[in-house]
Amino acid sequence: MMMTFFAMVASSALLAVQSNGPWAGGGRAPALRAPAPPRLPAKGTSLVVVGQGGSDSAATYSDGESDPPVISVLGSALSPSGVAIDARGTVYATSNGAVAEFAKGHTNPTKTLTNGLALAYAVAVNSKRTLFVLDLVYGIVEFPAGASKPSVTISAPELEVDAAETFDVNDNLYVATPDGHVYVIAAGTRKVKNLGLNDLFRPSGIAFDSTGLLYVSNAAGVYVYRLGKRDPIRIILTSTSSPGQLAFDANGLMYVVMPNQYYVAIYLPGADQPWGSITQGMNFPVSITIGGS
């Protein structure tokens, strides 16, 4: 079959580029360069803790790598609907209505918080290492760093549900509730404010990235909001299975728990598709936190 005129021209141009030979108009063709590979994250700068509903425990992993092995397993009789880690590497996990505390390096609880709690469901720690426990009976219960008794209890019926918590860089507490709302409690106050975000249906996870954007797990995707705006600016479709809790590491990677599919999806900053995952040691993952060192 004879080559068409246009095919011959295209073939000649390609050969010129490949050989870096002269163009018809003089000079030399620019050399082709392969696209730069994506910048991969640094490994092992933080600890990833995943609450395992199927084994009543929490598993720890290194961050910044795909499908890392289990480092350690914390506890054996937890009900880890919520997990948190502070700057010193202390892990907190809900445990049969209370909160189990694991000092750094320990796999058995070093303390159990019961005072002021009835049905602890979620936990979050601010920059001062103050622990905020979302209790299904009493509301938001605050424990100062190292304390065994709460200092403040914020009674708020709208928050006494199976919700998720997170902090922004200013230690304001945000709570996503399954009835489709996100509330904020400003640092140092007891006032609960509804942000009035649109398009939420049974949110189950909430976190901020390093730029201050708010991410909320919602139905079949993660919805991204800019504070002060009610409508999502971006939607990351995760899968046909509803995503659960989520967290960000120091590299900007987003970790999304996929409870019904027994893994954690990992997204590079700005990506719409997973870069990696955590599958080892997964036994119905239900909660996640990243931090410590």
Give a structural overview.
The chain has 293 residues and is mainly beta. It has a single domain (47-291), classed as TolB, C-terminal domain (Neuraminidase), CATH 2.120.10. It is 5% helix and 37% strand. It contains 1 helix and 24 strands. The protein has one helix at residues 5-19; strands at residues 47-52, 57-62, 72-74, 83-85, 91-95, 98-102, 111-113, 120-125, 131-135, 139-143, 152-154, 164-167, 173-177, 181-185, 192-194, 205-208, 214-218, 221-225, 234-237, 246-248, 254-258, 263-267, 276-278, 285-291. The strands form 6 sheets. A 4-stranded antiparallel β-sheet has the order 3-2-1-24, with no helix packed on it. A 4-stranded antiparallel β-sheet has the order 4-5-6-7, with no helix packed on it. A hairpin with an 8-residue loop joins strand 6 (98-102) and strand 7. The longest helix has 15 residues, at 5-19. The chain is globular and about 45 Å long. The N and C termini lie far apart (66 Å). Mean pLDDT is 87; it is low at 1-25 and 27-37.
Q: What is the rounded distance between the termini? A: 66 Å
Assign the CATH class.
Mainly Beta
Helices, by number, come to 1
Largest sheet geometry: 4 strands, antiparallel
For the residues shown, what is the average pLDDT? 87
Count of beta strands: 24
SSE class: mainly beta
The ordered string of helix (H) and strand (E) elements is HEEEEEEEEEEEEEEEEEEEEEEEE
What is the radius of gyration?
A: 24 Å
Strand order of the largest sheet: 3-2-1-24
Helix content: under 10%
